[in-house]
Specification:
Elements lengths: L11 H10 L6 H7 L7 H13 L3 E3 L5 E3 L6 E9 L5 E5 L12 E3 L12 E8 L5 E8 L6 E8 L5 E5 L8 E3 L11 E8 L8 E10 L5 H9 L8 H9 L9 E3 L5 E4 L8 E7 L9 E8 L10 H9 L3 E3 L2 E3 L4 H7 L7 E11 L5 E12 L2 E4 H8 L5 H28 L9 E5 L5 E6 L4 H24 L5 E3 L5 H12 L16 H11 L5 H11 L4 E3 L23 H16 L14 H34 L6 E10 L2 E6 L5 E5 L8 E4 L4 E4 L5 E3 L3 E10 L4 E6 L45
Parallel strand pairs: 5-7, 13-20, 14-21
Antiparallel strand pairs: 1-2, 3-4, 3-6, 4-5, 6-7, 8-9, 8-11, 9-10, 11-12, 15-16, 16-19, 17-18, 19-20, 22-23, 24-25, 26-27, 26-32, 27-28, 29-30, 30-31, 32-33
């Protein structure tokens, strides 16, 4: 029985137990009622509660109600639980009993987890903040298998050395004994196995693989490949199977060799698995309509369920593309030869005929398994130039018979796209151009031409046709799904828009949001200083597209059903769709031949969907990190130079800046901002100086100086250019805001909120 402090009052321990066990904060009245405290003892109870509060065991919340202070251990295992609109990472404790209610807020600072995956588990060092939330600094990832580290080996004066990790999150270097060096040379990129060490001893590692001199450009992609565990070597059985494959004969296939199908890809494309054709529909009942065809390499003929090629393709999930190489899903004997739709050679294909009305709406479609012969390998730039009146020798011959009909059908498809209200976001991409030595010659933003949009619309139409057919045939379909935005993120966006006074930007509330609602918002913001910021916030509010056997629709494309059909060379999902189409047509008596689906149970099919969604994220993370490292290598010669940029992320530990010239992302650590204590207003996506009133807001233009560029980690550390004579754009000015100033027009002196954190890149989702 609990000991009483005095007659009629509970003990401190009893009060603390009651507060801690309550799912919500409690007040003095609830405590008095719980312990049946007599009214005459209420004053004494109030004094006891104040003593408990002074001891620091409880804290006041809303309406001065009491809650127990939940103190997490200094080192804890966490799970990433959310990534907000600014790219800030939140986590929750792995060991948190449900009866304790909601866990405290934990923000991961200074570190960025490899693929920005919710659900990733880490060991982190925890620090409690004044507001009751926590900051976490990642110590290591929780992963299965022997721990390894990728890094740069540095020889010491003796025979041993040390490894500097390539992961910008890593704070420790690893010692390498002379016997564990594996003849590693200073400056080499190495893969090492982390060795067990005594407590408090310097961490040690053994070099297991030497990957080349870091001065060589090729090591940039190798870092991305090895850091993300992307398989690069094909099993012997898979290579042998690919090498033994032979071209197909016509047989019962539909002969498409006289149809002038053409491939249209980037000038740097390495595989060609889709071809297109269009012509006016001669049917008088479909005036102004079109007959189009999309033909795709028939990978399912060569890669059968359960064989060596299939096992490896499923494991890889997709191809991965870098500026200097590709890590293919299939061996080159297939991906670059028999399944590549090269000009003037017969190739096996799975093709879909589609008939469109004048408004671009599909009226019917039909799949065939065929044999085709590409009439030309064209680039986006070639086709666009021909359309704009400057054809070259190749496109001149195809202008009337191929190019003009393609654009005619595209115009119709574009009408249908506008009618259904597809989400129209500006998603700029960086393109790294290498010279003959493999070094970066130039970094540019990829052009967005009508020829790109033409191919996209043809591919979308074919993907929809595939999903519709599989539903009709009652076959398992690997859908590409894009769920509606998270309501919490939508509400955060609405609140932010409400804070933009005098602009009138609004997002509809109280109804199901549609892509056209976002388009209306983007249209309202166009031409204002907020345009880029609103585009970023709308993008970050979206759910992540994934693969699933369950049809959730595709929100961004405003489609009820959607599947990936058009790239079976480089995506395993598309190969599964091809197999299902072959099986469905065979079961319908159309004799599509061999290469159909194996009979998988739904749980196994769902497991494949989860796996290939993960490999897709892994590939995106590897490609992005390689671009970051190439960019850092390119900019390393310009440390100290100033650049125009824009704030694309605001977090409690600093600002993420996108440089206008290269599209590169870098971090301005909060500790380097002009002297003040900066408060992070999460809902308004801004930092505000407590004394000076300076405002750094999402979307604001800034001028920054490059302080550090690390090609090994890919990190860029930037510093705001503060003085007007340095050509700086004042924070807030681009968004119609003026920061408050101290006396005399100068910023008031103050202390930065935190020390300089390690740089990390904001990942888009």
């Amino acid at each position: 029985m609990a000991k009483r402090v005095r007659k009629g009052l509970p003990t401190r321990e009893a009060i603390l137990d009651f507060i801690a066990s309550s799912p919500t904060p409690v007040g003095k009245r609830e405590i008095a009622r719980q312990f049946k405290v007599h009214p005459a003892d209420r004053v004494a109870l109030k004094g006891l509660i104040k003593e408990i509060e002074r001891e620091g065991a409880v804290e006041r919340g809303p309406k001065r109600r009491l809650a127990a202070i939940e103190v997490l251990p200094a080192i804890a295992e966490l799970e990433i639980s959310d990534i907000d609109l600014d790219g800030e990472v939140a986590a929750r404790p792995l060991a948190w009993p449900e009866e304790r209610g909601a866990p405290p807020k934990i923000f991961v600072v200074e570190n960025r987890l490899g693929a920005d995956e919710i659900g990733q588990r880490v060991v982190a060092r925890i620090t409690r903040l004044e507001d009751g939330s926590y900051e976490a600094r990642v110590v290591r990832l929780i992963a299965e298998g022997p721990a390894r580290v990728l890094g740069v080996f540095r020889r010491d004066a003796g025979t041993g050395g040390r490894i500097e990790p390539t992961d910008r999150r890593a704070k420790l270097e690893y010692r390498v004994a002379a016997g564990d060096r594996n003849d590693g040379q200073s400056g080499e990129l190495v893969l090492a196995e982390i060795l067990p060490t005594r407590r408090l001893a310097a961490p040690q590692a053994r070099i297991v693989e030497r990957l080349g001199d870091t001065a060589e450009p090729r090591t940039i992609s190798l870092i991305a490949i090895h850091s993300n565990d992307i398989p690069t070597e094909f099993p012997h059985a898979a290579l042998a199977q690919a090498e033994a494959a032979k071209p197909v004969k016509l047989g019962k296939r539909t002969d498409l060799r006289d149809v002038p199908l053409v491939t249209i890809d980037g000038s740097d494309a390495r595989d060609f698995d889709d071809a297109v054709w269009a012509a006016p529909d001669p049917d008088p009942a479909n005036k102004g309509g079109w007959h189009i065809m999309v033909a795709i390499a028939d990978v399912s003929w060569y890669v059968r369920p359960g064989d060596a090629l299939d096992n490896e393709a499923e494991k890889r999930g997709n191809s991965v593309y870098f500026p200097d190489r590709v890590v293919p899903m299939l061996p080159e004997a297939l991906s670059n030869e028999l399944c590549s739709l090269k000009p003037d050679v017969p190739r096996a294909c799975l093709a879909v005929h589609m008939w469109l009305d004048a408004g671009g709406r599909k009226t019917r479609h039909r799949f065939v398994r065929g044999l085709m012969r590409s009439a030309a390998r064209l680039t986006y730039e070639q086709v666009q130039a021909a359309r704009d009146g400057t054809p070259d020798a190749t496109t001149r011959k195809l202008l009337d018979t191929v190019v003009a009909p393609l654009y005619g059908a595209f115009a119709a498809l574009d009408k249908a796209r506008a009618e259904r209200g597809t989400l129209n976001l500006d998603l700029p991409e960086r393109r790294v151009l290498l010279d003959e030595s493999g070094r970066v010659a130039h970094i540019e933003r990829r052009q967005r031409l009508d020829s790109h949009r033409l191919i996209e619309e043809f591919m979308i139409a074919a993907n929809v046709a595939a999903a519709e057919t599989l539903e009709k045939q009652r076959q398992f379909c690997m859908y590409r799904v894009h769920d509606a935005p998270d309501p919490a993120k939508l509400e955060a966006l609405r609140k932010f828009l409400e804070g933009l006074e005098g602009i009138g930007l609004r997002l509809a509330k109280g109804q199901a949001v549609r892509p056209r609602d976002f388009n209306r918002l983007l249209s309202q913001a166009a031409g204002t200083p907020y345009a880029a910021m609103i585009n970023d916030l709308v993008l970050r509010s979206q759910a992540q597209a994934v693969y699933s056997p369950e049809n959730l629709g595709h929100f961004g494309l405003a489609l009820r059903r959607y599947a990936h059909f058009t790239s079976p060379i480089r995506r395993y999902a598309d190969l599964l769709v091809h197999r299902a189409l072959v099986s469905g047509h065979n079961e319908a008596g159309e004799e599509f031949g061999e290469g159909g689906s194996s009979k998988l149970a739904l749980p196994a099919f769902a497991a494949i969907a989860t796996h290939i969604s993960q490999t897709e994220r892994r590939a995106a993370a590897a490609e992005r990190s390689a671009i970051d490292r190439y960019t850092a290598a390119y900019l390393s010669a310009r440390v100290g130079a100033s650049f125009a940029g824009r704030i694309n992320g605001v977090t409690r530990f600093g600002l993420f800046i996108t440089l206008e010239e290269s599209g590169a992302d870098g971090l301005v650590p909060i500790g380097s901002l002009p002297g003040d204590y900066y408060h992070h207003e999460e809902a308004q996506h801004r930092l505000i100086g407590r004394r000076s009133g300076r405002i750094y807001r999402l979307g604001d233009p800034v001028t920054v100086r490059l302080a550090e560029a690390n090609p090994v980690t890919g990190g860029l550390i930037l510093k705001i250019v503060e003085n007007e004579e340095d050509g700086a754009t004042r924070p807030g000015r681009g968004a119609g805001l003026r920061p408050s100033r101290g006396r005399g027009g100068k910023p008031a002196a103050g202390k930065s909120a935190r020390g300089k954190p390690e740089g990390r890149r904001r990942g888009r989702r």
